[in-house]
Amino acid sequence: MYQLLRQIPAIHELQQSRLFLELIKTKQASKAKLTEWLQEAVSDIRKEILAGEWKDEDNVVEFTEMVFARVSERLSDHSTYRIRRVINGTGTVLHTNLGRARLSEEAIQQVTETAYSYSNLEYNLSLGKRGSRHDLIEDLVKETTGAEAAMVVNNNAAAVYLVLKALAKGQEVIVSRGELVEIGGSFRVSSIMEESGASLVEVGTTNKTHLYDYEGAITDDTAMVMKVHTSNFKVIGFTKEVSISELKSVAKAHDIILYEDLGSGAIYDLKQDKIGSEPTVTEALENGADLVTFSGDKLLGGPQAGIIAGKKKWIDILKKHQLARVLRVDKMTLAALEATLKAYANEDNVTKSLPTLRAIRLKKEEISARIQAFSAQLSPIWNMVIKSDVSQVGGGTMPEVELETELLLLSTKKHKAQFIHDELRKGTPAVVSRIVYDQIALDFRTIEEHEFEELHKRLKEFE
């Protein structure tokens, strides 16, 4: 052990090595950073020797090369971007772990243009004076939803928080027990309400809430009736819920705010394609909601954002609240959201231009055609099976909806499915697949034609 420890070169000797000087010369990292990695590599080796992880026969070691091999690994990790492009072979369209909605080509172009140069983010070009970023997007939200006014914050949880904080702090908010949902990351509606300073008043039961439950809970301290759309789960069987249209008269009679958190944020009505029963933002507003909040990166098909739409008198209060600045979005989000909302102006083309809607509406026959086109270029070493299955919408949206699809199942005698699955995920571009019947499963609902060439190259690595 001690003989090995004595062989480890000092840091100043490693710094004089040809390998160190070559790394400095290529300017892949600063001298300070390379020295830090040298120290870490040497420290790791020393700990391994002291822990008895080295065999007795390893009494003569070329430590310099070993140290620089470890430094090279760190350098490779350092030069690789942490956020990486992924080919989604899971079939889940709004995959939360993979970034939810993909942006349209128009949105990507608008983001690039906005990021590349200066913009009129808070400058009114017509008047030549300071403007408001709220004005950039409000008219488009109004046009697509029918709302009187609107504003945008950084995500839907923030939108919920702002509404409760600004309009119900220190007062009561009535919510059905069956709608006290938990969204991703263990964030609960009840917890957000507690943080906002509003007092939660639960009514009804898990499976049944009646109009009289709401009416009986209203007091002089009630500021709001809040309805939460249960977009990430379904209660079936012996159930009863009260709709926004039913609550409208109660809220109006007591002069309290009627607020619905839709979450998923559908503007295009997928019910016309016989896909799910998700209510649209327009429907919620027409049925009597004073305020509606929803996500930008779910069924809307845009960037992460929380959109608040509804009555102007309430939106004006929200815009002036101090939290509006804390929760505001940046120029690139607004650019992507503007391009996404503009797509809805063309009803005939919106389902083709927005990748989210396009993928959700994809027919089984179209997916089969993709598989046939892709598999025609595969090497004969792959065993191929096509299996009928279902895709998910994902993103906590329409949990009861199963989209008919076909899977391409791949296997080879050379490698086990788990090995291929792991290596596909770790490579470039990363490919996220599934394993079905000990075979690699790829759902081409979420794999587009322009990704075929790269996916072929990744699969060639296992031939």
Automatic annotation (TrEMBL):
Recorded GO terms, molecular function?
L-seryl-tRNA(Sec) selenium transferase activity
Which Pfam families does this entry report, sorted A to Z?
A: SelA (PF03841)
Pathway stated in the Swiss-Prot or TrEMBL entry: Aminoacyl-tRNA biosynthesis; selenocysteinyl-tRNA(Sec) biosynthesis; selenocysteinyl-tRNA(Sec) from L-seryl-tRNA(Sec) (bacterial route): step 1/1
Instruction: Give residues where N6-(pyridoxal phosphate)lysine occurs.
Output: 298
This protein's cofactor list reads:
pyridoxal 5'-phosphate
Q: Which family does it belong to?
A: Belongs to the SelA family.
Query: What is one term from the GO cellular component aspect held by the record?
Result: cytoplasm
* Stated role: Converts seryl-tRNA(Sec) to selenocysteinyl-tRNA(Sec) required for selenoprotein biosynthesis.
Question: Reaction catalysed by this chain?
Answer: L-seryl-tRNA(Sec) + selenophosphate + H(+) = L-selenocysteinyl-tRNA(Sec) + phosphate
Q: What is the lineage of its organism?
A: Bacteria, Bacillati, Bacillota, Bacilli, Bacillales
Keyword Cytoplasm listed? The answer is yes
- Location relative to the cell: Cytoplasm
Question: Which key words are in the record?
Answer: Cytoplasm, Protein biosynthesis, Pyridoxal phosphate, Selenium, Transferase
Lineage: superkingdom: Bacteria
Entry's EC annotation: 2.9.1.1
**Which GO biological process categories is it annotated with?**
conversion of seryl-tRNAsec to selenocys-tRNAsec; selenocysteine incorporation
> What's this protein's name?
L-seryl-tRNA(Sec) selenium transferase
